[in-house]
Structures are given as structure tokens and as C-alpha cells.
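In response to a reviewer's request, we include the raw inputs and outputs for one of the modeled complexes. The two entities were modeled together in a single run.
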Amino acid sequence: MSKHHPIVWVLLVFFVLSIGLPVTAEGDESLGDEQRRLNLESFDYVWTTIDEKHWEKKPGGLDWQAVRDELRPRVEQAATVDDARDVLFEMIGRLGQSHFGIIPGHVYEELQVERGAGTTGIVARVIDGRAVVISIDEDSPAADRGVHPGWEILGVDKEPLEPRIADLSREFGDSLYLDLVLASSVMGRLSGPVGEQVMVQFLDGRGRKVKRKLSRVEQTGDLVTLGFMPPVRVWIDHRPLEGTLGYIAFNMFIDPGRLMPAFNAAMREFLEADGLVIDLRGNPGGILAMGMGMAGWLIDEKNHRLGTMYVKDQEVKIVVFPRPETYEGPVAILVDGLSGSCSEIFAGGLQDLGRARVFGSRTMGAVLPSAIEKLPNGDGFQYAFANYVSEGGEVLEGRGVIPDQAITPTREALLQGRDEVLEAAITWIRTHQEHMEAAR
Amino acid sequence: MKNETRRHLTNRLVLAGLLVGASLAISTGATAAEPTAEALLDAYVEAMGGKAAMEKIETRVTHGKLEIPAQGIVMNLTLYSARPNLNYTLIESDMVGKIEKGTDGEVSWEMSAMMGAQVKEGQERDDYLRDSTFDKWLHWRKLYPEVEYAGTDMVGEKPVHKVVIKPEGGEPQTLYLDQSSSLALRIDIVAESPMGVIPVASYLKDYREIDGILIPYEMEVEVMGQKRLITTDKIEHNVALSADRFALPPEIRAIVDKGEGEAAAEVEPTSE
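The model returned the following C-alpha cells for the whole complex.
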């Protein structure tokens, strides 16, 4: 290729920001010489990558060389694949930062075979120490069996949830990841191989204990593979609200080839709407450029930023490129403790710019730009290579986006079929609209 | 490779060596062993095939791939270029959809579902127009008014001469020219865009002859600590390209017309 510069621009934008998928280690087979060599190479790969690419001179404030000297012999002596992997988990865990993770190789194989974990259609969160159904997918087994939002989930396959929730709440009580950990614990028990059934015990709206045997079916959305990230299901939903408002929700900033055209079509449809609600609850993030591109529908002036990335020895501005047509009405963004990464940059950036009002609960505080690579032993390795500072000067890592209007859903409202976070957003938009009309 | 072509390129490489040798011969004193930047750049052009061979080419279509190997991401890449500085680049994959970038020689633009339609401005526009110049290196004297020899270095195991070239109003670039073949093995640039000023190092590999010109079929790019790989599958020369190939897409034309309209309104005198 005689010309290189024309494609450099593309090279800058493909950085994945998604939070690492919760995975478990597996592989207790004894090690042969070849596996031992691959594990050592993998350890060296992880250590060197962080040494070379971490934006801090002392990654995580650690003496990184000393970490290597201490831990590498343990990989050499590891008796099983699990033991060796545990050392890698320990090494990256010492950084105390998000977006560092090891994805065991078997996870890729399992997800390829199963084409993703099956779902009952229940979306659950833990509210005040109780696992509660907050929404149900249409036409899902849970919907067919009459499960309602607001029902408390008491147990799954005869295993009561309360003790586990109590344990995790104690363990992660001070962590911004508490909501994520609790929700993952509940959702993880509900999900499983497609075609299998699960018995769930509920407390219904009348306070009665009821049981439902629910099938697990394919999750909603298209199965998407992005490089070495395990396959994920991606969906987008948009609809008018109360006739004159627009509502857009999507579960990840992934699959730009399909999701962005759908988002763009929704924005064109809502250009004249009285208000716009973008629902990022449960959205763990994805590709940074998608967030930048979406923000371009909401900002009509050039040179605005959602923040700045600090890579080793340089900074990258997260610029908003205004679309030829932009939406000018009020924008409400809904978030919760499972909104992470790109969701946080999008919500926090627009909040800082005064372009959106954020509703819900504090986000995950896991915003570091990252990449996922394959290790010599077949495991995946996610590593952050930059810090992120919002346009308002906040380091959102470990802090999260603090909503302008903090609202935690209640079981009572859910049982009444209400979504309090969405209601608050609509009320604000209507009030904003009245103020604008009065000003005119 | 045809015998005639091989002879042509062999002669060119010899000539390239002679050009550098001549510059050494006319140097004096403490700089006797130091070639000039001008001679090295002329030798680079000769090594690629020379002016006559380059000027036989009117259009080029390059088919290849853009990969992020460490992350397992692969996209198809097609570049269309024509004299004097027309360019249209298309990147496609199921994962990202379609990403387009181009210039009609005056307007530099970019368009994708991800980022929308954009018209480039300022230094970013100037850089793109310059880099879209067909046979760019043949015109180095015009495109890079300032050139300077910057000593020797190594690219891998190969000794190279470094030449710093500076476009008018742009950031300096560094060429690492193989002391043996005179071909570029590495080019360092600074990509300037609204996202910031970002250094990019490109390693040019696997030079192959096509229609009397040597072209690198592989380029490894380092940007922000990440590696990207651009590989060429096929190059076609002097393909008839329709006039529409480099025309501005309607979305870009609309932005340009709107901008021109706004600019006209700004200078229109008020009628008080």
C-alpha cells in the first residue's frame, strides 16, 4: 500500500470498553511440559503488556517488577491449569482497576457450542437485600407462566437466594460493583443451557409463595462476536412514549454494523419528539466510537467532548462529531449500577456538557478503555491501556456517574406495573417542556 | 516477474545506489560520509521504479485487509485512487458495517453509520489531501518543502538512513530508508484530528513488483501501543473508474452546500 494515512483514522477508534464478562475458572488437569510452557508464556505476555501499556509509571501503584519476581515462580510450580490461571487472576487483581481480566479458554468453546446461555426471560436486580423481578421479556417462558415484575425470587432449583445475597452484600458492601455482583449472582442462577428447565420459587404480589417451572430459551437479540470477546447477544428497542416522546434502549455498545443503523433510524424518527429517553440500565458498555457517534445526534456544535483518554505519554480527546441533523429537545438518560464503561462515558459526558439529565442509581465506575487479546495458552486477556477523565474533570473509574436525580426502583411500584426511573424522566421532560414554552 | 521488468527494476536499484553515492561524493569535510536528504528521497523514488514507470499508472485499486491481530478483528479494505489526488477508501465487515472516506480533490470527507457524515477541516483536511496525491513520493519536493537528513538507525536488522520531511503547515514525518535497497522500511507520522495529535509508526514490508513499481504488500501500524496490520491481496492498475467513484456522496454534498450557504450568509451585508 503506497498510502497509509487515509486509513489511520480507523485505527484510532476500535477500542473496546466493555466490562469483562463474569466467568469462572475451570481446568484441573495436571500439567504437561507443553502446557507449563504455555502458561509461563501467558504469564509473561500479561506481565509485559501491563508493563509496556499501562498509563501509570507504577501500574496500580505497585512495584511491577517485584510482582513478577514474586508470582512467576508460582506459575512454574503450578500443578494444574487452574492453579496457573489463579496466579494470573491474582496478578491483575492486585492492580485494583477495572477492565483487567482473564477469560478461560473453555468459555469460548462453551459459548460457541451453546450459542450463549439460555434465559427464562426474567430480568432481576437485588433491591434492599431481596432479589426482585424488574422486567420480563415479551413472549418469554416467564411471561407465558404469568410471572410479574415486582415478584420476589426466593430460590432457584431449591437453593434459597437470601443467604448468598447476604454473603455477597457483606463482601462487596463498600464496592460500586455490589449491584453488578448481586444481579449477576441471581441472573447466573436463572440462566443455563438452552432447552433445560429451572424451578423458581417466588413471592408474588399478594405475598403468596408460588413456584414456576420455567424453560430456558435463546436470549433476545443477535449473537455477536467481536474479535476475541466471547459471543454476546445484542438488541436495540425503540418506541414512542406517551405519543410525543421517544424512547431508545439497547443492551450493549457492540455490533455497530447492525446497531448503529437501527439507532440512527430511531433518531431520525424522533427528531421532532418533545423529549428523548435513552435507557442504559444494565448496559455494560462496548465500543467507544459508538458512544461518540450516538452523541453526535444530540450535540449540534463542533469541538465538544465526552472526556479525555490518557494513554501512555499521550492523550486522546473523546470528541463528539455533530450529525448533519441533530435532536434539540430535552434528553434523559437512565442508568443503574450495571451501567458501565461506555455507558458511563456517554451518560457522564453528556451530563457534564449539560446536554442530558441522568436518572437512576450510581453507575458501575468501571470506565477504563481496554482491549481483549488471546494468550498463548488459549485464554483471553482483557487489559486497560488508558485512564479516562470526564469533561468535567472527574476520574469516573471507581466513582461512577452520579445521577442528577437518584431513584432506586421499589418492589411496590414494580408490582403496580410502574417504572419509577422512567416516570421521573418523563416528568422532568414534561416540566422542561412547560418551562420552555413559558419562556417563549 | 517478467525479465524485462526485472531488468528495469534492477537498473533502477543500481541507479538509486548511484544517486546516493553521488551525493556522498560531492559532500566534503566532516560530513563526507553523510548523504543528503534530497539524494535519499530521489533514490527512494528510483528504487520504487522511477518516474517513467510511475507516470504510466493513472488509477490504482488496492484490495486488502485491515486487521487487529491481537484482538482477532478483520475488516475488508479497498482503496481507489486516481490522478491527481482522488481517493476513495472503503472498509467493510459484518462487525462494523461500512466505513467510507475519500476526497474529490478538494473536499475531504468521512462517513459511517457509527460516526455519521463528516467533512474534514484544517490540518486534518490538508494532511488527507496531501496523502491522497497520486505518486506522492514523485512529488516530494512540492509536498515537503523542508527535508533534512537525520542520521542512521536500524529497522529490525536492517541499517537505514533517517530523513525528516516537513509539509507546509503540517507535522514533520520521518522516513527510514533501507541503506541497501533505498526503499522505505518505516514511516513515522503524527496523525492530527479533533481527537488529538497521535503518533503513528508504520512498518512497510513485503515489497512486490507490479507494473514496474515496487509496492509494500504488508504494513504493520503501531498506534497508541496497539498493533494493526494492513495486507494487500491484489492491486489493479489503470482500471477504468467511473466519474462517480470520487464524487461526493449526497450526505457530504449536503454538508458542503450548507456550509457554503452559511459562509455566504455570514459575509452578506445587512440591509439596515
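As requested, we also summarize the result in words. Chain A has three domains: 12-108, 122-215, 223-369+384-439. The mean pLDDT of chain A is 87.
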